[in-house]
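User: Could you check the structure of this?
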Amino acid sequence: MFWHSLHQLIAFLLDILHVVRQPLDQKDLEILFLRQQLAVVRRRQKRGPSLSHFEKLLFAALVTHLKQTGQPIREHLSNFLLLFQLDTLLRWHRDLVRKKWTYASARNRGGRPRTDAEVETLVLRLARENGWGGGKLHGELKKLGVTIGETTLRDILRRHDIPPAPERQRRATSWRTFLKHYL
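Assistant: Sure, the predicted structure tokens are below.
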């Protein structure tokens, strides 16, 4: 994908160099030939051509350049746009502008970061092996240098179906458990 886009960019830059070096009358003739060829292609195809993301980006960038000239865009583009509709091209341009202004927010979605898997494993191990409640677990983790909120701690225990400490102690002291340990 990268090499294809790079190839397209280099070909476009070479086309620009070629056009800049041509005399005006030769450019006009070339434009007429290209328009006639595009008209033939357009008549033969039912749908427009499928364009790559890079090609859409290139056309949207050309619209941006056209906007900077100060000319009315709709009138100017409708004169020489042959392969696709004007609204399609303007939609590509809007998408390009939208992506430019929303790129930073797409990377940083915000919100609370996930708890590290190692910390979650440690919390579960301490809770299961010792039967400690949230406050005791929080204190012990703090002694170990692990910074975690009590609410996050409680959410981890809930997510893994570990009830609060008083309920765990009530469940653990059934007659069956008592008889297993003392007989």
